[in-house]
Amino acid sequence: MPTPSTAAPAAHPFRSALARVNFQQYVVYVGFLAIFLFFAIVLRDSGFLSQRNLVNIVLQTAPATIMAIGLVFVLSAGEIDLSFGSIVAVSALCAAMAMAAMPAAAFPLGILAGIGAGLFIGAINGALIAWLRLPSFLVTLATMGLIAGIGRSLTQLRSIPVTDPLFTGIFGSGSLFGVPSLVIWTVVAVAIGHLVYRQTRFGAHVLATGDNARAAQVTGIKVPNIRIMVFMISGGLAGLAGLLYAGRLQAAKYTLGETDLMTVIAAVIVGGTLLNGGKGSIIGALVGSLMMGMLNNGLILMGLSVSDQMIVRGLIILVAVAISLREKSR
Amino acid sequence: MKKTTMLAALLATTLMSTIAHAQTIGPNGESATLSSEVTLSDADIAALTGKGYKAALLWHTASDFINAVAAGANDEFARAGVDVVVTTDAGFDAAKQRSDIETALAAQPNVILSLPLDPVTSAEAFREAVETGVELVFLSNLPAGYVHGTDYAAIVTDDLFQMGKQAADVLAEAIGNEGQVGYIFHDAAYYVTNQRDQAFKTTIENDYPNIEIVAEQGITDPARAEELANAMLLQNPDLDGIYVTWAEPADGVLAALRGAGNTSTKIVTLDLSEPIALDMVKGGNVAGIVADEAYELGRAMAAAGLKGLLRQDVPAFVVAPALTVTADNIAEGWQQSLHRDAPASVLGAQ
Amino acid sequence: MTTQSAPVLALNNIRKTFGGVVAIENFSLDVKAGEIVALVGDNGAGKSTLIKIISGVHAPTSGAIQIDGHEISMSSATKAREHGIEVVYQDLALADQQPVYMNLFLGRELTKGPMGLLDRKSMIEETERLVTELDVRIPSAHATIRDLSGGQRQGIAIARATHWARKLVLLDEPTAALGVAETAKVEKTIAALKSRNIGVLIISHSLDQVFRLSDRICVLRRGNQIGIRETAKTDKNEIVSMITGV
Predict the structure, then answer these.
(1) Of A84, B225, B297, B339, which has the highest C-beta tally within 10 A?
(2) Domain identity same for B133 and B186
(3) Where is the signal peptide (chain B) (predicted)?
């Protein structure tokens, strides 16, 4: 290396190593551990640490974690999806109705209808945003309501039972070598999501699109295709989350997923994904989602009243988001 | 509005068949036992105290009504020395309710009080609780296929028929047992409002031959109540009274009457609400409010669960009485229904 | 190299009109391999339009573009890149949150293995080799663009163009936003491109810079080509009078 000039700082090994450490990336992990330790101590006699309860937390957060993976892709591409919660319900209802219509082929039909509905709605969202150049916030705000309405009208607000044992086993209460199926789904989805996000050209193009769409475009990235793809990923994963809910509850209902919107957004942001694109983490989203689930679980077991639970949860999310966002905009 | 939030989850499915009957009956045709018959004796209290029993309250939502029910339950549990270790709010989300149940079970409660969101989704959701042998007491709704005694201890609900009937009685009295009335009902398939509305109509038709329902108007959105009432008054300017399905749309009807300078048409509605009560004590259009005994509902739920714990017979279907509140008994009525003082504005206006 | 004889870029009688308005009239210019040509002119003289024509954003109304003596038609920026033409945009077109090495390979990431996974190791090695060669001093190939100075960013943008350009690099006001020291650094990087035997076409407002860097200077005024001078055989006064027309 030539002698450093004033114009360019030298490549000091320590400094460069330090520059590569992004402290905000670890907020979610530190926060997760801190909350876990807090509950482990405070609730040591209240069943929090029982294996059953810990497994329950993972099971309960599985659908939200799956949705969070989709949201990481969408946010990383510089867009937002508000409609995935509504897609969950419609996908679950489509799957349940398809299975009820043809019990003989219930399992494949259920998957096809559920995931297919999610992908289809995602493609419509994506096409409106990529081709008509409409802002994703407004498009998905509109489709959120639209899809919620369709979910309600599909069944006149009735719940549809899901009875196929293969379906409820694989997407709900079943297990493989003692590992509950919802845990397997979570692990598989996170692993694939992380691989695609971090290790493929597609993942890199998603980040580039969200970071600087013009730069992405002039370097030959097909930005409209990327936008459509991320909404299809979000929709498809929302569809999968719908199947998990349907399997777990052995029924589909129009309210499924609707209340997950804010939890999932909070989990993803706390997990180190930027709201305005270009940066994110699938693993962070997983830990963020588990943290939200653990928070719900622990606050309930502490015996707090419902309003106190909401206040404490809100405060903790606020602190976590404040720390992660402050670090990011140095 | 306290009741309607609860209603949003109550789909008229298994319970719809009861509408034609002249009294409130259970989801499987059980006859009703009055909540006053479900009480803990001193011996029961002694048997329960000091055992370290725990209870969980797994509500479907958070509301004024639920607060009153929970207060009744909490007080009854406290009397028996039972700790309420978990309280949750599912926000009308069936998946959240299932998670809440699982989470609550980690705290190993002996009694769970809950309003199952709907018969289909809650059947699987409560299965784990049934298997662990917890005493389950349900509010208003029953998971599909559940059997009294083995799966759950009791269902407790409002005496819905009585609420509608008493609304008819108080309106009839206010207009001198004759005249023309309007009927604003909840136009959606919700068990609780449907039963109450139908009971009002049945009572007017059967018990008051000189009163005629001349105008019927369904309503789904309380925000549109005022314009619907205006239209009704335009077509029937001589209405003596109007029944409004619950308190929130009654606000709109009241606004329509005031706007028309109408001081003669009487209103009756269901569920306690401050603006409605205020109009009533000031001698306005509101003649009476029929309320449920939410606090008593909670007390009876807790008592039923604890009796189950003591292996005593618990009636399958328990109803808490309805309560007619007029300007004369507003203070006591508020106490009896919600177990707290009426709002200062209402008491001050008397 | 086969580019020694024919110019890497030859523009013959380029004319461009927007509606009825003539933006470029009868423009002809050759850029040879290893040569730096400066394009100067006042605001609105047509420099940006010319850059857009060469980079494939606008098609000329008439006239021919040749690369290595072969006539080509460029319908898009992608097409221009396929012909070996790279542009350093005034806004640099860098993805700020991504590391340096991902920016160098933006849209053209290296992959390995049957699953086509990103080959980060190769991209990082290549980046380090390139920034050393062009003497762009950055803390590391892992550094995030956002954390770099203006000069370092400009260096990365130039390095990226250099890496991918087989024929020609277009530089649009490369030092407009930089201080004195950083400008000197970037000029050194640009001068280093000569040794890579590619043609460079640079747009600059700074005549000092033009005289320091270029081999030839082409002057535009109101869409017309006023003339081309060899830098060594002209002076600032001549160029200024050509630019202003007085």
Answers:
(1) A84
(2) no
(3) 1-22
Sorted by sequence, the CB contacts under 8 Å of residue A206 that are 6+ apart come out as A73, A76, A77, A197, A226, A229, A230
Which DSSP state fits B55? E
B235 C-beta neighbours (distance < 10 Å), count: 11
Q: Do B191 and B112 share a domain, yes or no?
A: no
Q: Between C94, C117, C151, which is nearest A200 by CB?
A: C117
Give me the residue label for tokens 């077109």.
Answer: C93
pLDDT band at B80 (very low <50, low <70, confident <90, very high): very high
Q: How many domains does chain A have?
A: 1
Do B77 and B208 lie in a common domain?
no
Distance between B112 CA and the closest CA of chain A, angstroms: 14
Q: What is the CATH number of the domain that holds C202?
A: 3.40.50.300
The pTM is what?
0.82
Tell me the CA distances in angstroms from A12 to A18, A194, B218, C141, C151, one per residue in order: 10, 31, 76, 13, 19
One domain for residues B251 and B305: no
Same domain, B194 and B302: no
3-state secondary structure of C199: strand
- Give the gap in angstroms from C-alpha B232 to the nearest C-alpha of chain A: 29
Q: Which domain holds residue A163?
A: 23-328
**Residue A177 belongs to domain with CATH number:** 1.10.3470
Q: Do B103 and A52 touch (CB under 8 A)?
A: no
Count each helix (H run) and each strand (E run) in chain C, helices first. Answer: 8, 12
B124 and B99 in a common domain:
yes
Of A159, A301, A305, the CB nearest to B103: A301
Is A225 at the interface with chain B, CB within 8 A? no
Does C107 map to a domain? no
Q: What CATH number does the domain containing B192 carry? A: 3.40.50.2300
The answer to whether position A35 is within a domain reads yes
pLDDT of amino acid B13: 35
Task: Give the pLDDT band of residue B91 (cuts 50, 70, 90).
Answer: confident
Give B64's pLDDT tier (boundaries 50, 70, 90): confident
Q: In the 8-state DSSP scheme, what is residue C193? A: G
pLDDT reported for residue A307: 84
Identify which of B111, B105, B131 has the alpha carbon closest to the alpha carbon of residue B304.
B111
Q: Determine the structural domain holding residue C38 and report its residue range.
A: 9-93+166-244
Range of B68's domain? 2-159+294-320
Instruction: Report the relative pairing of strands B54-59 and C216-221 from DSSP bridges.
Output: unpaired
Q: What is the ipTM of this complex?
A: 0.85
Residue at C130 is within a domain: no
Q: Which residues of chain C have pLDDT under 50?
A: 1-3
Cβ contacts of A11 on chain C, cutoff 8 Å: 137-140
Count of H-run helices and E-run strands, chain A = 14, 4
- Cβ <8 Å between A60 and B99: yes
Residue C102: closest CA among A205, A226, A79: A205
Structurally, chain B folds into a number of domains equal to 2
Question: Cβ–Cβ of C143/A199 closer than 8 Å?
Answer: no
Is A183 part of a structural domain of the chain?
Answer: yes
A160, A245, A305 member nearest B95 (Cβ):
A245
CA distance B94 to chain A (A): 7
Residue A6 lies in a domain: no
**Mean local confidence (pLDDT), B50-66:** 90
Cα distances (Å, whole numbers) of residue A132 to A12, A77, A135, A308, C77? 48, 17, 9, 45, 22
